[in-house]
Amino acid sequence: MTRAFFVVTAAGNNYGNAPTRNIVFPARFNRVVAACGVMADGSPYADLPGTLMAGNYGPASKMRTAIAAATPNLPWARIGAPTVVDHDGSGTSSATPQVAAAAAIWLADSAHSAELPEDWRRVEAIRYALFASARGGANPKLGRGTLDAVGMAAQSVPLAELEQEKPDTASFAFLRALLGVGLTDPSDDPTYAMLSLEALQLSLHPVIEAILPDLDADPDQLAAATRQRLAATLATDARASMTLRQWLAKAAGASNTGAPPPTDGGAAPQALESPPSPSAQALNASAKLANARQPVISAPLRRHVRIFASDPTLGTGLDTVARSVTTVSVAWERLAPGPVGEYLEVVDVDPASSAAYAPVALDDPYLLHEHGLFPSETDPQFHQQMVYAVAMRTIEAFEHALGRRALWSPYRDPNGTDISGRYVQRLRIYPHALRAANAFYSPAKKALLLGYFQSPAICDHADIARPTVFAALSHDIVAHETAHALLDGLHRRFIEPTNPDVLAFHEGFADIVAMFLHFTLPDAVRPEIAATRGDLFTRNRLGQLAYQFGQATGQRGALRDYIGTIDAKGHWKSRPVSIDDYHAATEAHDRGAVLVAAVFDAFLRIYECKAKELIALATGASGVLPPGELSAPLVDALTIAVCKIAGRFLDIMIRALDYCPPFDITFGEYLRAVITADRDLVPDDRRAYRVAITAAFRARGISPRDVRSVSPDTLAWERPISTSPSRKWSTRWRSIFRWIPHGKKFPVARRTMRGCSTIGWCSGHPMTG
Known about the structure:
The protein is of the alpha+beta class and 769 residues long. It contains 23 helices and 24 strands. Helices cover 37% and strands 12% of the residues. It is elongated and about 100 Å long.
């Protein structure tokens, strides 16, 4: 070979120095520079606790051609995302490109590079400059020291003094000693070469390394007892091949005569009578002792946090205090004060009051033990805890339904034309962003801005306190606004009002998420089941959103009540359903309320069927409840049924987002997406969820265009006709262009979900799939 190459590879990584803490191949070769690790404080990236990944080092003979570079927590690019850089670069793999880059820079800028011939001297010059400029080489775990790219760039090389590194071999030199002293060189034997390579691979194991710490030692200096122990260990290794075991066993039998082992492939001899090889327990005794003294405690899976189940006003009455507070669980993550986690960053500044409140530290041991702060209307830190917990519950609902990580929509350019934008790591939540009866998600700021205000006076007496209402303390408002942000991350064009349904869908869908999240809180559901004797069609707070917020802004009952109204005398009446509900509602919130009413009605119908079954079981099939309160077991059973059905509806409604068009959505198209998504996941609709949903939409005048009939079978999107790409696309284009007036071609947006091509869009008209 006329050209030479400078090669640097990772030294390898381990956990608790297992399976090996020694440098692995190919970095083990002396002609290869091994990249070890050094941490920010200058200490070696090695010998860390068993729960942490650490870098390999050793044996001593190899560290002569090793060098250390920074790791872990390095900037690390993400494949497929050119604008995203994480700080999760770790291991010696992240140290390797630093060494290689320093060598490349030296070669490109060195005054000697033009004089260096393209042979081994070029490689040795790079190695000399690399090692000579390294800093702090006193620590043997760092090899020649820590990489100094700046110092290397200025390093000169005495070309006349360079010596070529000796060639490496991928063989186990000690195998010859194990097979018999005085044995003629069997290097030309292909069987021996294969077994030598196998023995080399087996030697990279703690048990073998305890016997033979350095593979580069002189095999002829191996003591007889050590040789016998090494042979026995290799022969009894479960990973060893039968051929290697036979060679070692036969060599042991012929060791007295010095004859070479036979290669006739005869039967395996009896096991060697030798001292037992050290067990893994003995080898890892120090690690086990350290773990016994200070056992490693795994991080919990869930974090339990207390919140207001609905709103603070429920805690002021004896009849509602039981349902005012609950404890929810969210996925465990390390939190900085704020809280600040992977998805969310709570920033508690109050511009109206020119104040900034101290961030809550939910990882504090005392707060972890107490499930966070106790709910309080006046403690800003509890407000921070509340918004974090509710927002995380909403995020988890989306991830559970969609089966993937939730992402926020990227930043847009000022004129709003570029929606590719920059990646957004965290959604910000401002619990006290404005002093107003308002709360909203800001797509521009990528933040939830929650308001607070003083409620109107309830009488003319000046000494009667007017409570302050905080949107941050309403479970439904926080969930509603978080759902807006998550929907914007999934469908960025749904904020463009191309038809009256688009903004209404944003409002209605956010309310659906908030409502069903509420229904999954057993502590909130159980008292309502007991109070209404299992009949959720009567007036209850579970069908209302943001109860306190609505009362304080002057509305009787709730911010929006979808199943009924309260008349002037304070009596609740169910809202009659009309086929004109959808077309009569023109304002976004009103039309969104129709969507929520349809979904909620379907939910109640499914619950009614399940409740009849449970009540029949509890009453001996009569179905007639006795007077008085329901029994506790029946209340619990009905509560479980409500929470389970609500969770199923929440999954259905969120999963349908993957089947929606990318823009210009209508309620009819969403209905088709709901039916298709549920059909793909649950082909057997045993509980008639799809029938109930279709009937509830149809009763309010919501139906898609261009369908033969409004039934679950006809509403589901059609599957592709053929799996052949050419035929599928030709059929697809004929179907699309059939809808284009006068043969005009319009852009078509295509989404692929579950392996099939779905809805195309053209001039605002839906395409049959």
